[in-house]
Description:
The protein has 147 residues and is mainly alpha-helical. The chain has one domain. Helices cover 73% and strands 8% of the residues. The chain has 6 helices and 2 strands. The chain has a two-stranded antiparallel ribbon. The chain is globular, with a radius of gyration of 17 Å. Mean pLDDT is 86; it is low at 3-10.
Amino acid sequence: xxxSSQTIERKFPIELRIVVWEFVRIMVQLEKSTKSKNHxxxxxxYHAWLPAWHEIDDRLTESGKKDVSExxxxxxxxxxxxxxxxxxxxxxxxxVLENVINQLKVETRLASGNAEKLTxxxxxxxxxxxxxxxxxxxxxxxxxxxx
Length: 147
């Protein structure tokens, strides 16, 4: 094992703070790919993050039924603390973010007459691109556990 491999291994897990709406986008995409490709890999981020996903989904469902402002605050202002435990999980996160960003690009082209929808889609795309850049830098950074 070379020195750089040892350094990478010592730095896992990587902690991520992700805004709830970003986490929802990621998990919905992971659910789709898990179902369509029949992935059953217990090391995937989907399975690792499933408990947090169920908790967030339950909270969103409950708050959506009783208080729209609580739902909105949870989606837009709160963060989820997650971990990537390996390069494989980190790479999976990159691929998922790239897929969601590409889908948003397509949706943006299709929404070309709706100013409100375009603004929303552009915001999401921009924020997810920022998240992708930050997570890519975390792999290279000696102080990884900060977002």
